[in-house]
Q: What sequence folds into this?
C-alpha cells in the first residue's frame, strides 16, 4: 500500500472492499464475494483513492494487487496486509464470535422457540435471540414489522476532528447558540497536540454553506463558533455532514427479537445521550441473559427488557428533543428561558446529580 503523509480515517467497509479485491485479484471477484455490483466496488475504491491522493492498487490488465513494501498511515496506525490479516485471524479465534465480513442480514422467520435468519449469501442460522443493532435504517426492525416515529428539525451536523493548543482535560464541552450546539469531544493527541472531535449542528442551509467553504475559511468559522475555548482550531480530518433527527421505535421487541441503539432510538447529538442510552440497552439485555440464560429470547425476557428500557428511552428522547428545540430557537426569550432553566437545575444539588448521572452535565 502507499504511504500517505496525512492521516485518513479508513472505515471498515472500505477496508473490507480493499481486502476482497486483493484476495480475489479482481473487481469482479470482489463484487461476487461482497454481494455488490462491480460498479459499487469500483466506486468505493475510487473514493478511497481520491481521499488518499494516490492509487492503491497495481493493475496489469489481468490481475490486481498491492504494490510491494507500501503501506497507508491511518489514524496513527499503520495498516498493512499482514496486520489486517492478524485482525481477521484474531476475530476468528474468539469462540463466541462468528465473524462474516461482507455478509449482511436478508430476512428472518421467528418461531416460538427460535428465529431462523437468512443472510445475504443465502446461508441460514437458527438462534434464540436476534438483536437488531444495525442502525437507524435497521433491516432487522423492518423484518420484525416494527414502525418508527421520526421527527425532523431542518438541521444538519458537521463532524470533523481538530487540533488545538489548550488541553481538553478529557472533558466534553457544548457551546450553545441559535442553530444548535457546537460540541467538542476529547480525543487522543494528534501529532503531539491536543485533539478533539467536533459535532457542529446548524440549520440545514447554513450547514451546507459551511461544508462548501475552503479549509482556511472553514477553520476561521469554526474558531469563531468555538469562542476560542481551546485556542485556534486546526482541521485534522475531512468534514462529514448528515441530517439531524429524533426517531423512536414503536416497540423495542418482537418475537425472538430485541432492538438496541439506533435501531431503537435516534436523537440529536446533545449530552452524549445516544451513546449513554445505547450502553444501557446492552447492559440491560446482558443482565437479563445472565440472570436467566434458559429464557434467552423468550417472551418473559423480552417483555422485561421493553418494560425496563422504554420509559428511560422515552424520557431521554423527549428531553433531548426539548433541549434541541430551545437551542435552535431564534427567539431571545426562548434562549433566555433555556439558559435560566439549566442554571436553576444546576442550583438544586439532587437534580444536578441526577442530570450528571444521566449524562446531561448541565452547568
A:
Amino acid at each position: 500500500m502507499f504511504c500517505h503523509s496525512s492521516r485518513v480515517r479508513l472505515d471498515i467497509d472500505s477496508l473490507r472492499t480493499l481486502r476482497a479485491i486483493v484476495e480475489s485479484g479482481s473487481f469482479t471477484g470482489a463484487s461476487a464475494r461482497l454481494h455488490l455490483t462491480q460498479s459499487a466496488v469500483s466506486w468505493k475504491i475510487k473514493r478511497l483513492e481520491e481521499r488518499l491522493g494516490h492509487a492503491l492498487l497495481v493493475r496489469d490488465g489481468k490481475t490486481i494487487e498491492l504494490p510491494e513494501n507500501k503501506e497507508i498511515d491511518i489514524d496513527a496506525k499503520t495498516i498493512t496486509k499482514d496486520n489486517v490479516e492478524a485482525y481477521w485471524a484474531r476475530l476468528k479465534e474468539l469462540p463466541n464470535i462468528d465473524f462474516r465480513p461482507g455478509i449482511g442480514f436478508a430476512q428472518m422467520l421467528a418461531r416460538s422457540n427460535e428465529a431462523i435468519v437468512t443472510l445475504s449469501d443465502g446461508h441460514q442460522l437458527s438462534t434464540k435471540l436476534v438483536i437488531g443493532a444495525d442502525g437507524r435504517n435497521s433491516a432487522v426492525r423492518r423484518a420484525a414489522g416494527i414502525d418508527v416515529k421520526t421527527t425532523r428539525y431542518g438541521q444538519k451536523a458537521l463532524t470533523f476532528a481538530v487540533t488545538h493548543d489548550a488541553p481538553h482535560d478529557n472533558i466534553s464541552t457544548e457551546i450553545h447558540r441559535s442553530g444548535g450546539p457546537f460540541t467538542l469531544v476529547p480525543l487522543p493527541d494528534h501529532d503531539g497536540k491536543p485533539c478533539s472531535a467536533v459535532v457542529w449542528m446548524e440549520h440545514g442551509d447554513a450547514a451546507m454553506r459551511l461544508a462548501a467553504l475552503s479549509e482556511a475559511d472553514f477553520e476561521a468559522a469554526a474558531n469563531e463558533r468555538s469562542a476560542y475555548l481551546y485556542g485556534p482550531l486546526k482541521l485534522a480530518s475531512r468534514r462529514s455532514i448528515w441530517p439531524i433527527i429524533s426517531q423512536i421505535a414503536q416497540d423495542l421487541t418482537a418475537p425472538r427479537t430485541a432492538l438496541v441503539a439506533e435501531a431503537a432510538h435516534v436523537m440529536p447529538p446533545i449530552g452524549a445521550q445516544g451513546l449513554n442510552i445505547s450502553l444501557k440497552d446492552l447492559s440491560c439485555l446482558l443482565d437479563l441473559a445472565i440472570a436467566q440464560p434458559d429464557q434467552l429470547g423468550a417472551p418473559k425476557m423480552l417483555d422485561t427488557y421493553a418494560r425496563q428500557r422504554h420509559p428511560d428511552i422515552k424520557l431521554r428522547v423527549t428531553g433531548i428533543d426539548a433541549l434541541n428545540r430551545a437551542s435552535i430557537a431564534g427567539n431571545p426569550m426562548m434562549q433566555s428561558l433555556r439558559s435560566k432553566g439549566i442554571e436553576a437545575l444546576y442550583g438544586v444539588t439532587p437534580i444536578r446529580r441526577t442530570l450528571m448521572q444521566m449524562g446531561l452535565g448541565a452547568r
In short: Residues 122-330 form a domain with the FAD/NAD(P)-binding domain fold (CATH 3.50.50.60). Residues 1-10, 69-80, 355-363 have pLDDT under 50 and may be disordered. The two ends are 48 Å apart (CA to CA).
